[in-house]
Design goal:
Blueprint: H1 10-13, H2 20-48, H3 52-83, H4 88-94, H5 116-129, H6 141-153, H7 157-173, H8 175-183, H9 188-191, H10 195-205, H11 214-217, H12 220-231, H13 234-257
Helix pairs in contact: 2-3, 3-7, 3-8, 5-12, 5-13, 6-13, 7-8, 7-13, 8-13, 10-12, 12-13
């Protein structure tokens, strides 16, 4: 049974609550295409591009970027279906694209933004110290960057551009907008106060395209899902998640310029 949240909260009033079946359907609509693209389509495309490690990496970058773009399209489809329009004023409320609000004082923006700082720091610490599980060499882009990244990206502005597009959709338009902007505000009816925990777990297990990262991704329960729900703003997640993307951006830019 879907229990409506407190409608005295205007930010929840702007969204419809999902049933468990709807929540899992949205998860599947994001996770399954990414898995198929990574494990089925990318090898086929890599062979068409000439085979070899470099060709497969190009195919994998293209496929994962396509999967992330699909998540953005899926988000727009679902918001349009719910709201009846894609006017930004409605989309902004429907996806919590709003300044964070202090749950006690009701203050919006201003000093409330400072709450994002400890989560960015925690995210960085977790990324630095978390136990690193290496995936298969063919699919582990991080491993490829460590071994052949400079050779591949040196002077390669075209594929740098592809990677930048992917980073934008990873840290904002794709994963964050779908999981924390769309799903999280609509999970309270099923999961109550544990909605952010369920959201973080779903996000971790969405990584079927790189399952070795699932254990580390469980940290998103605290690092991205919790601050989004606590301050009812998807920007809390976007900023935290973007810290990693900005770091990768400058690392790859250094390789391109080398």
């Amino acid at each position: 049974m879907v229990i409506p949240p407190d409608r005295g909260d205007s930010r929840y009033a702007a969204v419809s609550q999902y049933s468990l079946a709807q929540i899992l359907a949205v998860w599947a609509a994001a996770a399954i295409p990414m898995a198929v693209l990574a494990w089925v389509i990318a090898p086929l495309l890599g062979a068409l591009l000439g085979g070899g490690d470099t060709a497969f990496v190009k195919a994998l970058l293209l496929c994962l970027t396509a999967g992330l773009v699909w998540q953005f399209v899926l988000t727009l489809i679902l918001v349009r279906r719910e709201q009846g329009t894609l006017r930004f004023s409605r989309v902004r409320n429907a996806l919590w694209l709003l300044s964070p609000r202090d749950p006690r004082s009701g203050r919006v923006g201003g000093r409330v933004w400072l709450w994002v700082i400890p989560f960015v720091l925690l995210f960085g610490i977790w990324e630095f110290f978390a136990f690193d599980i290496t995936g298969p060499a063919s699919h582990d882009l991080a491993l490829f960057l460590e071994t052949r990244g400079q050779e591949f990206f040196s002077g390669n502005w075209v594929w740098f551009g592809v990677l930048v597009v992917q980073l934008v959709f990873v840290s904002f338009l794709g994963e964050d907008l779908l999981f924390r902007g769309l799903l999280l505000p609509r999970m309270q009816g099923v999961f109550g106060r544990g909605d952010f925990v369920a959201n973080g777990v779903l996000f971790a297990f969405y990584h079927l395209h790189q399952p070795w990262s699932i254990p580390a991704a469980l940290a998103d329960v605290i690092l991205t899902s919790y601050p989004t729900r606590q301050w009812q703003s998807v920007w809390m997640s976007v900023i935290v998640h973007s810290a990693q993307s900005v770091f990768i951006f400058f690392i790859i830019l250094t390789l391109v310029l080398s």
